[in-house]
Structure formats: structure tokens, C-alpha cells
Amino acid sequence: MTLTPDAAALTPAAAEKILADNFAPWVLDLGLTIESVDGSGAVLRLPWSDRLAREGGGLSGQALMAAADTATVIAVAAARGGFVPMTTVQQSITFQRAVVGSDVLLRARLTKSGKRMAFADITMTADGTEEIAAHATAVYALLG
Predict the structure, then answer these.
(1) Taking the CB of residue 99, how many other CB atoms lie within 10 A of it?
(2) I need a surface site. Which of 12, 19, 99, 105 has the fewest CB within 10 A?
(3) How far, CA to CA in Å, does 105 sit from each of 52, 86, 139?
(4) What whole-number distance in Å separates Cα of residue 12 and Cα of residue 75?
(5) By the 8 A CB rule, do 126 and 46 touch?
């Protein structure tokens, strides 16, 4: 799908459908939900689950990495007005503090989006705080 100036903005419900239709079952098992979308990004919620915790009780880095990657796809779709084929080229993450017993809000914002590439900045905070728990950057190749 190509975004045109009169393309309808992606709604949270449409973003939820993109999530349901385009991700592996184990990613869906994370329980991610769409909080909001706009033309420059998306906010997703990763609900707390003991299944995602590592030793010591903190949310695992693997869960945060997968959630950040998924949030980037939704951010690109929001900017394009719908899902387009894409693939991760690069992702980097820095873990700054443990999240224990709390949902995580992922704020994915596109910093640049062209015809073939998209660049994103993703901040992750425990629900109810603005202190960053993790920060990621991602680069995507747009295939469609």
C-alpha cells in the first residue's frame, strides 16, 4: 500500500488487525496491545507476565527486544497508512533499569522514513513512570 495525501489515518483497531495478521504466534503470545497510533509512530503496551520474567523477577531482554521490533512495524504502518512488506535490517537496545511487576509502554517514533528505508527510536517505560527502562533504535527495509 502506498500512502497518498488523502489516505485514511491508521486507527488503533486497524493496527491491532495488522498485529494479529502479520506476526508469528509466539510474538502474539507477548500480549501486545495498541495504545495509540499517529502519522509518526505508535504506542504499544506489553502487559506484565511472570512467563516473560527472567531470574531475579525482571522482564526479560528478549521480550523487550521482540516488543520493540513489533512496535517499529506498527509505527511504519502508521506512517504509511497501512501495512507494507518490510524487514528488520538493524536493531540495537540499551537496558537501563529492570521492570518488575509492571506493564511496559513502548513509544516507537520514526525519525526518518523514505521510499526504501525507515529509521525508528523506541523508548520503553514501566507503566506509571517516565523513567526509561530500555531504549532501542531500529532500521527497516521497506520491500513494497
Answers:
(1) 25
(2) 12
(3) 15, 23, 20
(4) 11
(5) no
